[in-house]
Amino acid sequence: MGSLGKYVLTFEEADPDDVKLIGGKASSLVLMTRLGLPVPPGIIITTKACREYYDKGEKLPEGLMDEVTRGIKYLEEKTGYKLGDPDKPLLVSVRSGAAVSMPGMMDTVLNVGLNDRTVHGLAKRINNEHGAYDAYRRFLAMFGRIVLGIPEEEFNKPLRRLSGSTALRRTRKYRSRGLRNSWKSTSRYTLRGLVRCLMIHGSS
User: Fold this and answer.
1) Which residues constitute the domain of residue 130?
2) Considering only CA atoms, which of 135, 21, 121, 8 is closest in space to residue 64?
3) Residue 60 neighbours by CB under 8 Å, 6+ apart
4) Among 162, 159, 149, which residue's Cα sits nearest to residue 195?
5) Is 76 a member of any domain?
6) Who contacts 125 (Cβ-Cβ below 8 Å, separation ≥6)?
7) Residue where a domain terminates, one of 80, 101, 133
8) Exposed e or buried b for every residue in 139-150, given b needs 16+ CB within 10 A?
9) What's the pLDDT tens digit per position in 61-74?
10) What is the pLDDT of residues 94-140, one digit of tens each?
11) Which of 6, 18, 84, 109 is the most exposed place for a label (fewest CB within 10 A)?
C-alpha cells in the first residue's frame, strides 16, 4: 500500500521493477524519476484496480476515486498548479499501460484539465493563444473519441472549414481568432457540448 492508498501510487514510491503492477510506461517514468531526470510528478492507477474492476462486473473498486482525488492534491502540491484554476490550471496526461508492449492498443488523453475557463490561463502561461486553443481542441477530440465514443469526424468538420479559409491561413493572429470563434459557434467544442453530441449519436 502506498501513501495514497492500495490502488494508486506516486512515481516517487512505485517500484520500477514491478512491471506487472504498474505497467511498462509507468515503470520507465518511475526509473527516470529515481535517476533524477526532470520527469513531471505523476500518479499510477495500478493493475490491481483494473483486475478488481473486471472481477466486480466492471465496477470501480471502492475507495479508488478517493485515492485519485488525493493523488490530484499531491500533484497540485508538487507543481503549484490547481485542477480547474482559471489562472494556474493543472493539466495532466492520462495514459493507459500494460505489462507487455501493445503497439496501437493503448489510448492516451492529453491536457485533461482544460475547459472553457482554464484555456485562458494556459494561453497566458505559454504566451500563445493559438497554442492554447489548439491544445484544447485536441483534448476535446481525444476525450470525445476515446471516452465518449463520438466519431472523430465530428471534430474534424469545423477544423476543415477553418483550414479552408485563406484569410485565416495568413497569420497566427487570424488562426487564433478562427480557433476561438470555432469554439464559440460549435457546441460540441465544450465539455457540455460533448455530452449533448454523445446523446444525439446514442439515440440515432
Assistant:
1) 114-204
2) 8
3) 49, 53
4) 149
5) yes
6) 88
7) 80
8) bbbbbbbeeeeb
9) 999 999 999 999 99
10) 999 888 877 767 899 999 999 989 999 999 999 998 889 889 888 98
11) 84
